[in-house]
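Technical annex B. To support the medicinal chemistry partners, we prepared a structural model of the target in complex with protoporphyrin IX containing FE, based solely on the information shown next.
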Amino acid sequence: MSETKQVKVDQSPESQDRRKFLGGAIGLINAAIGIAIFGPVLGFVGGPIFQKRKKIWVEVIEEAELEMGAAQEVTYSMQVQDGYRKIMRRYSIFMKRSAGGVTAFDPACPHLGCRVKYQGDKERYFCPCHGGVFDEEGNVVAGPPPEPLKQYATKVEDGMIYIEKEV
Amino acid sequence: MSEQETQKVLTPETSVEAPKTKSKEDRLRQDRPSLGDWLELRLGWWGFVRKNLDEPMPAGVGWWQTLGNLLLTLMVFQFTTGIALAIYYSAGPETAHASVKFINEGVQFWGINWGLAVRGLHVYGSAAIVVATVLHIIRVFYWGSYKKPRELTWVLGVFIFFVILGLSFTGYLLPWDQKAYWATVVGTNMAKDVPVLGTAIQQMLLGGPEVGAATLSRFYALHVMVLPAALIVLMGLHLYLVRKHHIAGPVVPQKGKPKPFYPDQLYKDAWVVLGGVAIIIWLAVVYPPGLEGVADPTGVDFTPKPEWYYLGLYELLKIMPKELKIVGTVVIPGVISLGMILLPWLDRSKSRHPAMRPGIIIAGTFIILMIGFMTMKGVLEGGGGHEESESTEISSPEASV
Ligand code: HEM
Ligand code: FES
């Protein structure tokens, strides 16, 4: 059907050795080119894995604004590097002020990260995602969460409450 | 093709007749060939088309073998509507939600909401692909069509399935509404449970410590470049192998000669494709896709719930006690995925007949029923969405993520 003719090629043993050698060399060159393509790309895309994190104290709310007693949800803003932008990002946090000091819980459920709600009447935190339940101290009472709610270290300076956060 | 030719016994060994033009070499070689002949000499395209139309279909092949072609057509819909959406969409935390809102409302004339129609086709097209893929997998499983020499056709299919799930997961984030944001928080947290590499995988996906601008860019690149490119390559190889090994007949060979693919099988394919397309158009018109309020990590009045085809997994996570969390997030999905890839080697029976491989059929049926049951449970329980008033207002960028 086609016009391509069978072309005779050199099949001598010497040419076979040469083929093998050059074939190996081409393989090595291609491997090097492969590294040149994927090396920089993987390093670049994998950058976030090697991001350094540090702990800082973040201002949340004036002590006077936080009533004594039951836990309250407080929102605060802090500057973060969000990908390519530096923004004031809003976060919320549960804070409870008592004679002993201030406790602060992260609202992210330790199961898979949904936001827990504080149910004052039942004195518990509840996660609507898969039904995790935590007591007022953040301990798991029911449901699938494997760990207690994350608690932040707090300090009060000049009437302002700070939490220690990893950024 | 003439009537008698159609009657010829077609087997994989039957040589494919050269197109008519080829039988007249001189016609191809004449000084002023027709455009068709000119192209034919250079491309040999007609031979390829002819070969595919003549593809032998063993007796008993019919409606169940139309699903592959349905998937192919739905893919054409996805790529086309996806490109149209990309023309309007903008993948930044300040713009994503607003651009999708514009797609939903901004382009209307002649009484038609064009943007919403295109988005509706894309949304329901993706769901239809998941359904058609699952049906296609189930049919291939019970027919035992993954057996020698079609093992790699199956393995490629499994990878196609993973890419499809990846596309729906990454696409879900793009509208940057509450649903999108929280489904991604939960989904990427699951990755963290993978032993040793978990945190690295999660950080790679997120592009930082939490879901944010970097996550949106990454998901967008995955959704419109990486995964579609992978899908095209995988689909090409899959179809190449399907043609190379020819379609497997029924497990109990039926009387009758194989028939060429065109016209009988293609006619059935056409009806199924028409039905599938009609369903997604109907869904897009009757239930146009909505948009929740803009993503807000501090919003409390929102209960996240994933896309319906992930509800089986969602229910599984609910019932896993805390000591066994990793079983739900990693072990069960991992074992099922690995089992799918290795299926042609797990099922060692020579026969494709279901009765001759009871172990694998029982195990497979059990898994299929469990996934179906858990998904139903998730669907029937409802829930999710907003408890209080829903705001679709776009809050100022500062107030959003
Ligand atoms: C975009 C997705 C897919 C497309 C477009 C596609 C396309 C096709 C087509 C056109 C056929 C021949 C007709 C038919 O049997 O329906 C086929 C056969 C086949 N597919 Fe797929 N497929 C897809 C996904 C999958 C998946 C996810 C699997 C398995 C996990 C799979 C496994 C197979 C096997 C083993 C065959 C051979 C069947 C036989 O010879 O009887 N495919 N595919
Ligand atoms: S995320 Fe809270 S229970 Fe699953």
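Notes passed to the chemistry partners:
The pocket of FE2/S2 (inorganic) cluster (ligand 2) is lined by residues A 109, 111-114, 127, 129-132, 143-145 (CB under 6 Å).
The CA atoms of residues 62 and 158 of chain A lie 9 Å apart.
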